[in-house]
Model the fold of this input.
Amino acid sequence: MKFQIIKNKLLGLIIPLILYVAWDFLTSREIIPPELLPAPKVIFDTWWDLQSSGELALNMKMSLLRVGFGFLLGAISGFLLGTAMGLWKPVELYLNPLFNFFRQIPVVAWIPFLILWLGIDEWFKIVFISFGAFIPMALKTLEGIKGVPASYLEVVRVFEYGWFRVLRTVIVPSALPSISTGLRLCLSEAWMLVIGAELVAAGEGIGNVMVIARRLFQTDVVLVGVIVIAITGFAMDKVLGLLETRFLGLHRSQNAQ
Amino acid sequence: MERLGTLEVKNLNKKYRSQNDDLLVLDDINLTVQPGEFISIIGSSGCGKTTFLRLVVGLEKGYEGEILLDGQRLNGPSLKRGVVFQDHRLLPWLSIEKNVGMGLKNPKSGESRKTIQEHLELVGLKGFEKHYPHQLSGGMSQRAAIARALVNRPEILLLDEPLGALDALTRMYMHQELERIWMKEDITMIMITHDVDEAIVLSDKIVVMSSRPGTIKKIIPVPLARPRDRAGYDFANIKEEVLAEFQLHTDHPFTYSI
Ligand SMILES: Nc1ncnc2c1ncn2[C@@H]1O[C@H](COP(=O)(O)OP(=O)(O)OP(=O)(O)O)[C@@H](O)[C@H]1O
Ligand SMILES: [Mg+2]
Done:
């Protein structure tokens, strides 16, 4: 059992490893010119330089702060809207069409207006991120609450539960897995958008480091940026995933049956 | 003194609306159930048994006719009418103990704990308090659902094929248990079943339904002394009478299911 799990994880590493070897081979022999794609070793050195000079940490801190605020703002408002629409039919009738309309708009389409309204400083970035984070959170919360099986609600109707007990006994436990998925989607969206926002508007941040590096043709720095973004995003999702298993793990398997 | 819990159903019609036309599911149902009676409803699949039960529970609205409890029209579900659904409907995120305690006002109190424990013992689930529904077999889940429905001492217990998922031996054991619970709690029970023997062993009256639309074809009283002898002559006669309603005949009554 344990062995099988480890084996399955190892399978996922095979192709990345092959790609890495190919990358190393093609770049170190300069079959691909270094201006287009730097060699792994160069990347590693550049990363080490950025790391030891403190530049990377400083910019990461800025990006993560923005993600944090944007994520919180988006997740909370999305959760509130989703909950309100899920629990109260009139709210759903009034707001769901508007929400469905709003969510068709790619978040990047808001950039011109957001800049016009908020300038290009922190508020722009945070609000931009929260727009993106808001949508999956509202959607998944609504979905979770709407998906509460009617058969369970009938059981508690027979027991004459008050609304609070219905909420606590049936709705929350039943909707939680979906809400938790919403949270994860919301965080990864926020992380993508912070890079987007920083590519657009100057200031510190990991995206901005990449913009500047591209202008200076420092492809190695750009690539370090790409890898750091990937690893951070991966790590954030893993952490949320672990928290989810920790708090809902049992729960999820029970719901799944 | 007259006891409470008389259920009267008068000229009950129930239609379900499908795309264009209405589907008449129950057609002119008339039935009176005295307090403390054990009634079985038997009939082919899709004849409207569950629909009837849901109407009596108060979960289904929109019908013609009257459903009266002690002369009062029903007004939605109530703690007084417990139900064991055809699918057991245990909440997957609650332990068996908590599921069984769902019908209690304050499930954490010492008294509630004792009641829960008693009911778990009653259905033979002692030792499974901390288990979750997905760790139970189908039959165990049904027994847990029975315990949950009984725990708040309803006046009327409605059971929708409560023993359907049990093997023959456990089923016979549960017949004894149900009979014992029914006598001890002095409760009215209305049970849907497909098992003729089960109906005869447990019921005071057997309601035979026919389908499309669902009507009551016949009400067969079972005036046998309890506990009932499945091998007895009278038992066989009543079985013959019930099966005749389904154009089935038997020389020798083993188990027949409809
Ligand atoms: N919500 C509904 N909407 C429309 N039609 C329904 C609905 N519920 C049940 N029916 C129809 O009503 C009829 C009776 O259904 P019901 O569930 O009462 O049957 P049943 O006698 O309990 O059958 P079984 O023994 O298989 O459980 C069926 O023809 C079914 O298609
Ligand atoms: Mg049914």
Strands of chain B lie at 7-17, 22-33, 38-43, 64-69, 72-73, 81-84, 156-160, 188-193, 205-210, 215-221. Helices of chain B lie at 49-57, 96-100, 110-122, 138-150, 168-185, 196-202, 233-244. The pocket of adenosine-5'-triphosphate (ligand 1) is lined by residues B 16, 23, 25, 45-51, 86 (CB under 6 Å). The interface with chain A takes residues 57-59, 76-79, 81-83, 85, 87, 89, 91-94, 102-103, 132-134, 152 of chain B (CB under 8 Å).
